[in-house]
């Protein structure tokens, strides 16, 4: 995050690594290492970076200050996470209900299997769809901005 933020802010400012290094009193290699995530600036250099780019140290070191990708808002990203959590919950509830149904009424599971026209029996199809729903939810939750 820090490395990406330094790179993004430097590029937005239209500076080369060499130019930023001169402004901060460090070597170009130091800036390159920061942007590559190979090293981290010392506290005094973090202060200098935050002052130079007019951002707080929190914004510089966290993902909080990073704007959403072009064409997407924070609300869009939040909605995706909520949809992902909902899909996970639906999948989990379906699997739990399926397990309870198997224990309480094994005959209903046989009916589900008998009514399926797909080669994969109805129970297998139901479990596969539940797991697919959960997987889609996890992908939406952990999808990078």
Task: Compute the number of structural domains.
Answer: 2
Count of DSSP-assigned helices: 8
Instruction: Give the helix proportion (percent range).
Output: over 70%
How much is the average pLDDT?
79
Largest sheet: none
The number of distinct β-strands equals 0
Shape, please?
Answer: rod-shaped
Radius of gyration: 25 Å
Uncertain runs: none
Report how far the terminal alpha carbons are from each other: 12 Å
Find the structural class using helix and strand composition: mainly alpha
What is the beta-strand fraction?
under 5%
Task: Give me the strand/helix succession.
Answer: HHHHHHHH
Structure, briefly:
This protein is mainly α. It is built from eight helices and no strands.
Please name the defining characteristics of this protein:
2 domains, single chain, mainly alpha, 434 Repressor (Amino-terminal Domain)
